[in-house]
Amino acid sequence: MNIDRIDLNLLVYLDALLRERNVTKAANQLGLSQPAMSNGLRRLRDLFGDPLLVRTSDGMTPTERANELQPQVRDVLARIEKAVQPNTPFDPSTSDRIFRIVSSDYSESTLMPSLLKRLRNEAPDVRLDLMPPSDATFEDVEQGKIDMVINRFDSMPQSFHQKTVWKDSFSCLISTKNPILDHFDLDSYAAAKHVWVSKTGWGVGVGVNPHDVQRLGWVDAALNRLNRKRRITVFTRHYQAAMLLAERKDLIVTLPSKAARMMRNNPNIVIKSPPFDIPPFELKMAWSPLLQHSPAHRWMRQLVMEVAQQVDETS
Question: Last residue of a domain, which of 34, 55, 84?
Fold first, then answer.
């Protein structure tokens, strides 16, 4: 098959169809009519000799061949986009661009203040639209609607580019009036009352099941390996709220160390190492291959990494 006989617009259609898994939604995204997109799907099926999308009880489901094609098509389109983009340098000092960043509460608390300080000095008109994970989907990131995600991940789409921002351990925040300080060990930790703080996953959150240890996160998974549990009395998704609750004399807050050290000047709180081993985790930055070669995006990624290194060295 000669490439000069192939309508390369079909690859754009295929990319949209595999992302949306819906002919009407794919057509709307590309500004086409539904019949035009249906015709495009028919031509794609003829081109590849495969149905590509099959209607099932879950909707339009990609075939094995379609799943193989998706990362290849995305890579081809990203390269074409790079080739046709004007080679104009990005000037942060004059730009008023908005960068949309999905950021966990943890990374907002620890990284963003320093990032905003750098922006004020180097790019005073650049703006950040910080969004919680519940306000976006992986599809939004993949389509380039979101510039980047800064979060902890159990998994992410293989097509994403990613970089480790830093690694962090865990610490405990305890009130100076909490009697547990006189005998802080694994037994007293397990018997005490605790604040759970986290926000994992994407989409609208649901209530926490305290018996589902694996979904509670790193702290409870580490305890579970020792056949121990902690008594969680408060569940929150906000680190600032959790840190304030640490001033109560009957509560312990276990959270990432960089967040905990934000309270090091609080005279009412002591920072202690947990009385058991909790494996460190990685904070990652992830972005769409569609933005990989954007000069503005490259600048922002570099700035995030520079700021992260400074925070990592001083916290």
Answer: 84
Residues 267 and 295 occupy one common structural domain: no
- Domain of 121, in residue numbers: 98-167+282-314
Q: What is the CATH number for 160?
A: 3.40.190.10
Distance of alpha carbon 97 from alpha carbon 100, whole angstroms: 10
| Amino acid occupying residue 10 | L
pLDDT band at 63 (very low <50, low <70, confident <90, very high): very high
> For the chain, where are the alpha helices, taking DSSP H only?
9-20, 23-30, 34-48, 64-84, 105-110, 112-122, 138-142, 186-191, 213-216, 218-225, 239-245, 257-260, 295-314
CA-nearest of 222, 218, 220, 226 to 282 is 218
- Residues 269, 275, 278: CA angle, nearest 5 degrees: 100
Please say if the pLDDT value at position 102 is more than 50: yes
pLDDT at 285: 94
Residue 92 lies in a domain: no
Same domain, yes or no: 33 and 12: yes
Backbone angles phi, psi at 194, to 5 degrees: -130, 155
